[in-house]
Amino acid sequence: MTANSHPKELPLTEARSNLSNLSNEVAFGHQRIVLTRKGKRLVAIVPLEDLEALEAIEERIDLDDARKALADVKKNGSISWDELKHKLDL
Fold first, then answer.
1. Buried-exposed string 41-62: b where 16+ CB fall within 10 A, e elsewhere
2. What is the tens place of the pLDDT at every residue in 26-77?
3. Are 58 and 46 in contact (CB under 8 A)?
4. Three-class SS of residue 82?
5. CB 61, CB 36: distance < 8 Å
6. pTM for this structure?
7. Which residues pair with 36 in a beta bridge?
8. What does the DSSP assignment read for 1-36?
9. Contact 60, 53 (CB under 8 A)
10. Segment (H or E) for 47
11. Which of 60, 65, 25, 64 shows the shortest CA–CA distance to 46?
């Protein structure tokens, strides 16, 4: 998909009866389709490659967050679960 192109928008009611064709457009035509309800964007159907790229980005962000948390623990130490519960009056 090029930077200038926009996803096709389609009412959810219309997509229900054309799901097989839409799936082919997405899978083989590498199209993105946004489904709408009452004119509002609701969900998107995207190629599997797009989903895998998004998941890889999310995993990278999670890994970076975990590394930051571990660095914080090394720098500042940690407290036990019991200490935390006591501190929070739980």
1. eeeebbbeeeeeeeeeeeeeee
2. 999 999 999 999 999 999 999 999 999 999 999 999 999 999 999 999 999 9
3. no
4. helix
5. no
6. 0.70
7. 11, 41
8. --TT---EEEEHHHHHHTHHHHHHHHHHH---EEEE
9. no
10. none
11. 25
